[in-house]
Structures are given as C-alpha cells and as structure tokens.
Protein 1
Amino acid sequence: MIAEIIAVGSELLTPFRQDTNSLYLTEQLNRLGVQVGFKTIVGDDRRHIVQAAKVALARTDILIFIGGLGPTEDDLTRESVAETLGLQLRRDPEILQSIERRFAEHGWKMSANNVKQADVLAGATPLPNANGTAPGQWISGRSDGKEKIIVLLPGPPHELKALFESAVLERLHAKVPKQFIATRVLKITGMGESACDARVAPIYKRFTNVNTTILAGPGDIQLHLHTQAASIEAAQKAVDTLADEIENELGDFVYSDNGDPLEQIVSYYLQMRNATLSVAESCTGGLVAERLTSISGSSRYFVGGAVVYSNDLKIRFADVPEDLLEVYGAVSEPVAKALAEGIRKRCGTTLGIGVTGVAGPTGGSAEKPVGLVFHALAGESGTEVIKRNFTGDRSRIRWYASQQALDMVRRKLM
C-alpha cells in the first residue's frame, strides 16, 4: 500500500517553520510495511487543499492530513476534505460536550469558534484527542474498486503522536496487508557521485525488487537501499545481497555499511589497533577534533591537539620550523607534514594529523587558490601527505577537508 501525507499550514511554506510530523509518521508507516510515496505541504487555502486532496486520492491508498483542525478561520482541513469527498459535516454533541468540559476544567472561557472543532465528516469515526481540543477523524471506503483510508490528525506534535499511537495504529494494523520493509545505508568516501554511480548502476539495476537512492554530500556518497517483502527475512536478504555486491565492487571506498558516520568508523579502528590520535588544524578550525569528540568514549583514543591558525601558533604549539613557513608558506606540503609530526610528538600519540589550506572565500591566489588543502598523517613508519583542491563555499571546503583527514586515518589503520 502507498501512503501520502499532506501537511496543512501556510507557516510551513515560510523559512521559519519546518514540518517534522511527517518524519514521525513515515517511520510509523514504514514499520507497518507501508511505503510513503508522496509528501505535500499546502497553505491555508481551501481551493489548494481540495486540489491536493483530489490528486492524492487518485494515486494513494492511505491519505493522512496533518493540521488545520483548530478553531480559527484559517483551519480548513475538515471543510476541504468534506468538499473533496462530497460529504456533509455534522456537529457531534458528545465531542462538543468534551471540548466544553476541557475548557471548564482548566478554568478557561470557551470562544464561540471552538464549536467547529466538533464537526465530523459524515461516516467518519472521531478519534479522541486527550491532549487537545481537536479530535482526529478516520474514514474509509472504496473508490475505483480499491479501499481508501483517510485520516485527519491535529498539528501539534505531542497531540499528533499520542493520538496516532492510541487511535490510528491498531486500525491501520487491521487494514494493511502484512508487508515488511528492510533498508541498508552504504556510505562511500574518496570518489564522486557520478563515478560511484557508473560503477554500481549495472549492479543495482539487476535488483528490480530493491529501490536504490544515491545522495551526495561534501566528500560523502550515500546509497540507500530499500525494499518490501512478505517477510522481514526476505526483505533483509534482498537488500543484504545487493549491499554485498556493491561493497565487493567499491572495496575500501565503502567506509560504512550500516549508516555509521566516518568519525564512528575511525573510532572503531583506533580502538581495535589500541592507537591514539592528536590533531593540528589550521583551515578546519577544530572541525576534525569536534567530529572525533562527538563520539562517546573518544577520550580512549583522542588525546587532543591545537587549532593553529596563525603562523606563530604553528611554531609554538606544533613545532613547525619557522624557515618552512618563510620559504613555502603556511599552505604547503612541508608545513602540513611538520604540523602532523609536531603535534604527534608533542602529544605522544600513535598518529598525528595536520591540516592546512585556503577555506575562502578570500585569501586565495593563482598559486594557492581557494579550496587548496594539504592533509598530513604522521605515524611511526613515516608521514603521508595528500593534496586536494575542493570546490564550494567555506563551510563545504572545511567539511571536505575534515572528511579527507579522517579517511586517511581509516585507511591507515585498515
């Protein structure tokens, strides 16, 4: 079965308010084996809500409305759904009494406009809302030979979640055919999106029963594998088989097969090897250290380091020779190497990272353009230096640089 979620509210079409309810509902529906095929956000305009509802009913089996059940003039979900389905609204005396009782219990004066929250679609089942005055509604019927389920839920998250779990979940259980959804997330670094897809597309195209989505971020490609089956075992086997074939093709470009971030994978390797790490960061401004310490228990392997933005601090904190800075400049291979070696020696760690570059948008030159970054990893057996030219804004370049630095550690310890 395919579901659609329609979030109603003009505030959701501004930069100031985000729809998070649909994320919760998607998770709950997926657990039932229901795929969410569409999400729509529509403003507080009756014509637009009706248009969105008609389109949704033509393409989905389960339609869930979020919001627009309040007492004000711009709360139009009930009226819009009634118009779409050609149904009358009736005022339910029991719901009205419940609303009046709620106001009385809190010592509030009930406004006249609150009575419209007792309006129920003809044939719908009211869904009690223990946390607010707007009840939900459930209506089901057949259209074009198929059963359609429509659910109206209040917008406030604490009301929506409690009502869904108490009044909707079991009803859906009884209606939805038993299906199970399995997912896998492979994370790849060190190659671009197009290069990755060129290698894996011939593989995932053979798996017509598994949906594959490719997401690209700075220094990171994610492959989301998703399928449905009559049993969780069958679903899991399908995504696992595809994941295995992709991993075999991409080799150590795949750093995670369960969605873990790179810093988590690095932590595993450092602990497995009983290794410690320190950092000397210039252009990343502590981002590598921040990512490492975002993992609980990182004190077992991450000793610390320094943000050495100025040349003076590169000399004082990481023992970079002054003549290297004078001859080659701060953004150079010799300085990156000296940063890694100096911080490793100062901190007494197994490995040391040095990062220096031009994050932009200013500070670049013909010889050293914005995006040029040198990464160094020092260890007992020597020091490796990698030069990269990243593109994008300052934030993107800094993230790329931190990703490259962490991946050097991963590959060193693999």
Protein 2
Amino acid sequence: MPTAYNRWLCALAIVLVGINLRPTMAAIGPLLDAIQRDTGLSDTGASLLTTLPVALMGVCLLATARLTTWVKERNGIALGLALILMSSLLRWLIPSADLLLATAILGGIGIAVVQAMLPILIRHRAGVGAASLMGVYSTAIMGGAFLSGTASPWMAKVYDWPAALGIWALPALVGCLVWWGATTGKDNVPGKPRRLPVSSKSRAWLLLAFFGLSTGAYTLVLAWLPPFYTGLGWSAESAGIMLGIVTLAQVVAGVGVSYWVSRCADRRLVIFAAIGALFLGLLGFAIEPQLGAWPCALLAGLRIGALFPLGLIVAMDHGETADEAGAIAGFVQGGGYVLAAALPLLAGFLRQHLADLSLAWWLMAVLCLVLWLIASRLRPGTHISF
C-alpha cells in the first residue's frame, strides 16, 4: 500500500503536470497584437495558434488505446511534457510565423499525450477518490492558464513577446523532473486495455457534444477575449488581467467542483447554473462589453471552471470499470477537442472579414441553449453498456 507521503508526492506531480497543459495556448491571447505585428500573421492564421493544438489534442486522444499500447503511461506523460518544453523553448529561440505554427503542433501533441494517459492512471490508482483527484487535476490545468495568461503580457513589457512565450519551458522542465521522480518504481496501469466500441454508442456522442461545445466556449475565450478588448482600446496588460480574472474564476469553480462532486450523484443542478452564468457573460460581451467587462469575465470564468471538470467526470461516470471509463473519456475528449477547435477558428474568420467579434459571442450564447438541452439528459446512474 502506498504511504501518505507517496500519495501526496504523486498528487503534487499530477498538479505540476496539469499546470503545464495550457500555457502553450493561454500565453498567446494577450500578446496576439504584437505577434501579428511582428510576424504578419492574419487573424485566421493567428487563430490557428489555438485551433491547431486543440484539434491535435482531439486527434491524439481518439487514439488513446493505441497510445497506451505503444508507450507506457509513466514514459508517455514524461514525453508529453518534454514536447511541451521543446515547443516553448523554440518559440523563444526562433520567433517566426512558421515556427509558431510548428510549435503549436508540437505542443498540441505533447498536451494530447498527457491528457490521454493521465485520466486512466488516475482512475486506476485513486479508486473511489478518482473524481476528486480529477477535479484537482482539472483545476491545475486552469491554474496554469491563469498564470500564463496574466503574467505573459507583463513579461513581454519587460523583455519581449518571444521571451514571454518561451519562459514556460521552465515549469515544464520542473513538472517533468518531479513527475519522473515521483513515479520511479511505480507499475504502469496493469493489463492491456480493451478496445471498446465507444463510437457505436449514441450516449457517447451526446457526451462528446456536451464536452466539445462547453470546451469550445473556453477555447473561444482563451484565444479571442484579450484581442477583443485590445481592439476596444485596452492595453495588453489590462486584457491579460481580464483573461486572468476568467481563469482565476475557473480555478475557484474547479476547487468547488472538486469538493462537491463526490457528495452529490446528480451533477445537473450545478451544470445548469454554470450554463446560465456563461449565457449571461456572453450576452454582456456582445451587448455591453465595456460596462460589463469585469462581471461578465467573472461569470464566464465560473462557468468554464465548473463545466470543464464536470464534462470529464460525467463522461467517466458512464463507465462501470476503469477501462470503460478511460475509453469513454478518451473518445469524449478526442472528438470534443476537435469540435472545440472550430470555434476559435470561426471567430478568427469573423474578425478578419467583419472586424468584429460580437457575432462570435452571440453564436456561443445560442450554443448555450444546446448545452442546456444536452445536460437535461445526463441523468445520474446511467452507464454505457458494452
């Protein structure tokens, strides 16, 4: 049996891994105007800096079973962190448009490998505490987004934007070393994972749509909320603080979900409240962006912070075994991230051709109604039969 020290060390390693899964994308938004000015990237091209990692995360996550066959979990997570480290370092050393797009691909693959393997490992090791640990892991992901989105514009002001993007290689290095040390001598997930026909189940597609649309709201805000406000005359630092408020609210909501999730079987009440908060925040961005900036950012952040871990937890709830939960989570995340990648790309297209992002907020507000309808069908105690 693992000692309390080993459990805490593994939990710390999971937190440090999670912190490194968003700076590759979150640091871009507040710096996007300077990046476009210096590299010549169009709005559509700039949107690829978020769209490519998210889409690749989805593609790689759909191959979760094959990945766990090719590489052991401990090694795979370390490899993913190494790819994230390399992508940040290259952005610092070679700050060109082509290299930025290439590192978006490299970092996206690294993030995907980690996100494909870590939930399975958590489910196997944590047992009945898996839901709470998944909430902690998801909160760490949002914490990394908060740190990078808030700090990057200030670093760019002191140094330059390549340094502000590249500095995130350092926490990736720390996370990789701590992960490797904390998992030394640990067995990997036992047995060869079964390949389950998840894609043939209509319920799995419903879960995919829920996760994809709710995550799409996050990627949309992550990519375009800071440029939206710099376009309204805000400084990059103020826009970074705005993104920081969003992500800080996500962290608070994620902590709340981590505390609450094991105490209530029916997740829908909090899901409905989170969707309502997002809807109001998006309406504020579209109708009164200056006056409602800070309360709308808070509302949107609280929603994102609740729905992201809930989307994963509800998906894993539908599996009766760890293998089934892992297979469902891999399918839902994989297809969900591919779906989510479309929203920032669409917003970039709208900005390039209409010079306005208000329509993107209206579109996401309409999709909130779709999310509400999907959530109403997520009754507790429902499993996917294989």
Protein 3
Amino acid sequence: MSAQTGVQPYPAPGDEFKDDFGPEWRKALGSLIRVRPAFVGALFLVGLLFIAIAAPIIAPMDPSKVDVRLRLKPPLGLEGARSQNLLGTDALGRDILSRLMYGSRISIIVGLSSVLISGVIGIVLGLLAGYFGGKLDDLIMGFAEIQLAFPFILLAITIMAVLGPGLMNTIVVLGISRWVAYGRIVRGQVLAVREMEYIEAAHALGYPVYRVLFFQILPNITSPLIVIASFAVAGNIISEASLSFLGLGVPPSIVTWGGMLAEGREYLRVSWWMATLPGLAIMATVLSINLIGDWLRDYLDPRVRTDP
C-alpha cells in the first residue's frame, strides 16, 4: 500500500498470480492424487509420453522392418507365438509392439499440436468478437455458424481430399476445424467480464487493447478453456485415427494407430490382434485424457471444488 496516498497500486499484468502460483500447483497435485481415476489416467499418460519419447531406444525392433516369414504371428501365450514378438506380428511380419510404441508419438503430436492451433485461433477470434462486438462480432460468429453447419468429419475429409494425406496437413485440418468451441466460449466470457471494475480500471490507466485482452481478461477466463482443451486432445486423437483409417490422414509410411487399425480390418477373423491392440491403445489413451478432463472440470469449478 502506498505510504503517501494509502491506495493499493494497480498490479502489473501477471503480478496478481505470482504469490499463489506455487501453492496452487501443490493443491492441484494433491487433488489429482485423491481422485483415483484421474490419477491413474495421469500415470498412464506419463508412461505413454515416456514411451513416445524413448521409442527409438526401448522399441524391441524396427517398426518398418518387413519379414514375411514371420507374418501373422500371435501374441505371446498363444499357439505359434515367438518370444521376440510379445504382441505378435502383422501381415508383413512387422513387430506390433514396436509399431504401437512409434504410433504413440503421432497420436501425441497430432493431439497436442492441433489443440494448440485451434486454441490460438479460437481464443484470438473470441476475444476480438466479445470485446469489440458490432459488425466484427457478427462476422466472426457468422463464420462460426457456417462452419458448425458442416459435420466435422465431412469437413475434414473434404479438406484432406484436396490437400492430400500428410502429417502436417492432418494437424492443420484438425486445428482449423475445431476453433469454434474456443471462440464461442471466449466470446461469452468476455461479454460477461468486459464491464467489470478491473477492466474499467485498466481502461482508466490507459492500458492498450492488447494488454487488456491478453493480460487482464484472458487470465481470468482460462478455466473453461483448459477443460475444453483436455477433451479436445482426446477428440483429435480419435479424428486422426479415423482419417488414417480412411486413408486420408497420415501416409502409410508413418506408423499410426489408425493406420494399424486399417491394416488389421482385413484380418479380424484370423489375426484379431492386428486391429484389437491398436484399438485398445486408442481407447486407453482417450479414456485417460477424459478422466483428467473430468477432474479438471470439477477442480476448476468453484461451485464443486473443495480445498483441503
């Protein structure tokens, strides 16, 4: 408090969050540990991240090595299995365990990168629409309504058919196709807070528009965005697998879980493990992310949250 005026100086952008940053992380970690399903999901994702990073070191074999003499070998424990191939081989004799490890890298990259793209686009457009309103708001929200009129998978297939398959194309398509959820939430939140006292104080102090938007408004509306992003990662992993399954996502030369599903669908009767194992990997990853998303939704909701 100022000794001369007795008035609390207005904090610089970000200063109001510094004191509680460390304790807040400790509270979040304690809450996560107490919620067992979310904690198990977090442990699974940490393990998956480790596998994705260390895949070139820990993978037992080259995921692209073809050996037709070893084709369609079952997982260990079944008749005809090989001890070198714990989860069996595919129709070209490639080791499924190694391919699952390498495929996790693509799922993580696509899921996180596409969420980052859609989040940035949606947040910026939502901030502009909610803050300025008027014709700019009508234009942005009108474009959002047009995009919502198209089913997502149909829109993604159409764009991918034009651009062609590819890792970067898949990330870009998923990113630009899912910004609307962020934009609508941010717009609504900005409309609710732009007339509050701390925003008026920022205007009175002569803060530029970008500083008001990104340092005063955005930090106070991040809770719902974090929850949306957590669920969006799971959705994008499924979408990437769907596009790869249809042959419109990542090229077959790059190992993906969706591509493994597509290859295994023709062998469901004789070699069920080819499609079942990558399907289980997708299911476990998406379930873990959703469990963490449920915890985040409750933890960040002041009406539900109870601190110890």
Protein 4
Amino acid sequence: MVKNVNKTYLDYASATPIDKRVLKLVSFYEKKLFANATSIHSGGVKARNIIEEAREKIARGMNAHSDEVIFTGSSTESIAMVILGVVNNYQLNNKGHIPHIITSKIEHPAVIMNFKLLEERGKAEVTYIKVNENGIVNPKDIKEAIKSNTALVSIMYANNEIGTIEPIQEIAKEIRHYRKGKGAPQGLASDSLEARPFPASYPLFHTDATQAINYLDISNVDKLGVDMLSFNGSKIYGPKGVGVLYKKRGIKLSPIYSGGEQEFGLRSGTENVSSIAAIALAFEIANKMKMKEASRLTKLRDYTIGKLLKINNDNFKIVLNGDTKNRLPNNINISISNISSELLVIELDAKGIEVSAKSACKSGEDDESYVITEIRKAKGETYKGEEGSLRITLGRDTKKTDIDKFILTLSKILDKYKKWKK
C-alpha cells in the first residue's frame, strides 16, 4: 500500500491509495495490452477478453449476470446515466408526461444536482425526502411519496459525509409493494389502466453504493432489492477514472450521449482496459477483506469517537453527527462549535494529519454542509455562529497510533485557539 511519508491520512472516504496488487496489474496492462478492444485483430481480441473477464468477475461478486455490469468513468457518471437515462427513456415512451422522481435531502451532489437540473428544466417533478436526526430515511416516507408517474427512486446505501447506513432493503420492499398494485389510487382496481397508466416496472430503484462497497453486503444484489447500483474504483483501493453501474436485465435507459456504442450502447468511447481490469481486481480484494476489515475498523471507529467526545475544552463543544451504531465502520463525523472546519483542516494538515471538512466534492464551497443542516433541522436545531464539521475516515493503513496522534493534535489545536474564544 502506498503511504504519504510523514503524513497521517484519515480521508479514505475521499480517495483510497491504490492497492499494490492493483497497481501492478495496471502497469502490466498499460505496457502490454494497449490495443482498442473493438478491433478484430489479436490485440483487440485480447483486450476484449480482459474486459469481459472483469465484467464476469464483478457480476460473480454481486450474484448478477455479466450483461448487467456496465463500466463507466466514475460513480458520478454512473449515477448520471441512471437519473438522466431513466427520465429520458420515460419521456420517450410517455409523450407529454412529466415523470416524478424521488431522492433524499442528504444525497451526494452527483444525485442532488442532477435531480435539481431536471427540476429546473421542467423535465421532472421531484420529491426530496427528509431524514431523521441521525440522517436515516424512513421507508414509509418513500411509500407515501410514490405517485402513479414516479419513474425513479434514488437513495444512497451509506452517506458520504456522516456514514449513516440507509435501510435499502426496507425501501426496496415498499417499492415492490407499490409495483404489485398496493400503491394504486383508492377506488381503482390494481390492474386497471387508470391505476397503472405507466409500466409496472416503475418506479425503478437505484442506490449510490460508492461509500458502502468496501464494508456492506452486496453479495446478492437481488436480495438487496435494487434495480441499479453505482460505485467506483477510487474508494476501493483501485484506480481513479473508472466506475461501475449494475443495471438489472430488462431495464431500459436512454444513453446520455452517442458515439461508438460501447458498453451495450450506454457508454460510448474507447474502453480503458487497464482500469477496467483493475477495478475488478480491487472489487475482488475488497470482498475478500470485507468482514475482517469492517470488524477491525468498527473497533477503531468507536475508540476514536470515545476519545473525541472526552476532549475537555469548555470553549469548543464536540458533537457526533450521524447514527452511533448504524454507520459505516470507517466513518467519524463531528461538529465543533465556535471554530471553522476549514481552519481545523489547515491546522491539522500543518501537523501532518489529513482529514476532510464536509464532502470532498463540495469542500471548495463556503456554505455549511447541507447534510449537517438537514440533521440539525430534524433535531429542531440550527447553526449558531461558527461550527466546524470534520469528517475523519479510516482505511486499511489506519492504526491506533494514528488515532492517538490525531486526538492529541486536535486537542492541542483547540487549546491554542481557546484564548481567542474567551
């Protein structure tokens, strides 16, 4: 594993270092297998075989069919393919009808911003589901939000900021019940045309599993209950610039752009053979390590939370964000009153410790985390002055000594600024 010299890296939710076995594979294929996989000469055939072997490997790890695995450039692209692809296909087959789509208020920007884009352009009607004080979606709220024209529900498996694990199987159950006709308008037969004006496969259910893939069970995607699932390489110790979309057989998506018709016509462009092989290997390694690593990190996570909440400083109150137990094994998210998150990140970095403020994909913005805002609302609270929200995420290289160094350093930083807050 590659480590930053003299750095304590606690930002694994942003990006993971590439596994040395995966890096070796990438290097080999970049040097030896550079042919275009659409070519019919021997080099192209070898490249095609590598892609299909990778597809089969990932499908096997999810108990899926190989033709249900689509390679993309990132989770963001995979998610956009779902959201835009579902809406475009829906409108193509239901002329004059605007689809309804559902998500939560604490999704990753890759979901939220595409939903808002469609809403602003009048392409879709959107419902944003509230969460409770721990950031958990109530499946009953999803059920109540579904309408006869609901085309898509997209709820993340685990939150990228606060690590909360969502009840995906329970949400899937509510959606299945609706599909069977239990959601038909009152007074109408469940199999009548009026009760079901659109295809019975709707609403489709998608989950962003980008943060979950390292630690949560996806060994049987049918049992999980989703129709589509997204993840990428950079969160599972694989390369950046490659992602995966699981799409159940029979589901139709309209491609968001046209070109060479690669990846079943959904993702045109010359395939990145080395990265595709690499994400398959990274996925395989992650699945083998999952139970043991999740157990190890859960203990380290709880140790970290306990130490943080015991930091004694009257000027800076530390609060844990998210559920105490129903969260990812590697995630700790805290708010610290009376100090900005950006200042804390800079101070910690100066001492050789790398953490995040908010989500890495939003960290360049000045406004507070909308995820933290939503769970505050659920508590009936609001921000009061400065409040720093730090995300500390653990990984394969994280040791107890790293945590002890972080706790001691943070305590000293807060003591340093204590005099300015009197």
